[in-house]
Amino acid sequence: MLKRKFADRSGWMRVTERKYAQSYLETEEFKGYITLLHTIKVTEPLSLRYDEKDVCIVDNGYMWLQQCDC
Question: What PANTHER family does the record tag this protein with (predicted)?
Answer without folding.
Answer: DUF402 DOMAIN-CONTAINING PROTEIN
